[in-house]
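Handout, tutorial session.
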Amino acid sequence: MNKKAFYNMSYGVYVTTSTDNGKPVGCITNSNTQITSSPATVSVSVNHDNYTAECIEKSGLFGFTVLAVDSDPEIIGKFGFFSSKDTDKFSGFEYDVKEGVPVVADGCAYAVCRVIDKMETSTHTVFLGEVIDADTLKNSEPMTYSYYHKVLKGKSPEKAPTYVEDAADETGAKKFVCDVCGYIFEGDSVPADFKCPICGVDASHFKEQ
């Protein structure tokens, strides 16, 4: 099976959120899908190992922000490559609380949902949610999974539904990989003042591939 076939499917990039007894939690997802428009119903797939999945299960609520192409890329680094169990992912980012659920403000739109059903797979829980609130945030183009990879040159966290291990690069170019988010810098060396455009860490986190 050639998993690259899945690259041709359409995905967005979302910050899916919930609450842990009032503490905001969240993670990056890319398999959020509208199921019906009336009643408005959506689904989201979250890895069993993500703390956010546990919190959605307990609270019965989840929200998500549709990230835009001009959203701060550090949102993806923070929400995609750290755990809400031991990291305040919302620190430094504006967010609002809607229907008791934190919603990141830097995106195109948001929705808040009440869990009405779920389906278990070997690695992920697919939560089905009835939308109880939704609105647009700013007039900007939604970020796609393809844009994230081709333009921002980001990698999926291993817990993401669409994670596929990259094939070996045969171009021979010198590459340095961020050990936090997987961003690849190409060049003779990483400048001392360089910061990862995805997760914001400094040059010390880049290792030659």
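The second record follows below. Compare its token runs with those of the first.
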Amino acid sequence: MTIVTLPRLHWSPARKPGEPEPHHRALLVHGLGSSGATMWRMGEALAQLGWSATAVDLRGHGRAPRASRYRIDDLAADLAATMPENGEPAWDLVIGHSIGAAAAVVAAADDAAWARRLLLLDPALTTDDMQRNRVLDGQRASHSGATIESTRAENPTWHDLDVQQRVVAVREASLFALEHCVLDNPDWNTAPRVADLACPTLVIAADAELSDYFRGDHAAEVLASNSLVEQVVIAGAGHSVHRDAPEETIAAMREWLARV
């Protein structure tokens, strides 16, 4: 296994000279075909709470190094090697979307000291053949043909920045990476690793009518496997819950952080 160093973006509250740095630090992990920049909503929301937030580009995405293999274990190993820049031994919070959430689960399950809390945005913990084929076709089509107009038409409620950053991100990503995040994971199933998590974990799931990644028996089994895991469902939101319903997603995060 080869580990790559992931590029970083930062959000933090404004500070006057001499004021201490934010005490709490969060890591933001995007989904397939996105980039660290697409997590801007969550970064800004955390900065407004007084946190420092760091988003990374996953291998093969954005400005990250390209690699020959894209197993979820590889993505997780890259994340596990990504630590707060102030030398702290753990992230106070790790937020992951889709495959980024699956990789974050593996990283946290492998090392209980890596994250003190996990927030999973409609996590793609397991996929079947139909889902993988749909994702593969969608990523190929987006990489070759995504435009501002087509992305806006597909996602009419998104903020203009979400539309722009999605188009930039899918074009910047390596097509090889987009394909092999699917092709290298024919056994895609990180759900059993949820039982190994030792930190409070919140799943913010999409509407079951609009996304099939975390719903029904699968969601029930995951939630039953670990008492530290709880769920909020965002009605009317699809797979990109943080872009489809940012206010509701951020409100759920704030409420949860206030009590864990």
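Points raised in discussion: DSSP finds ten helices and seven strands in the chain.
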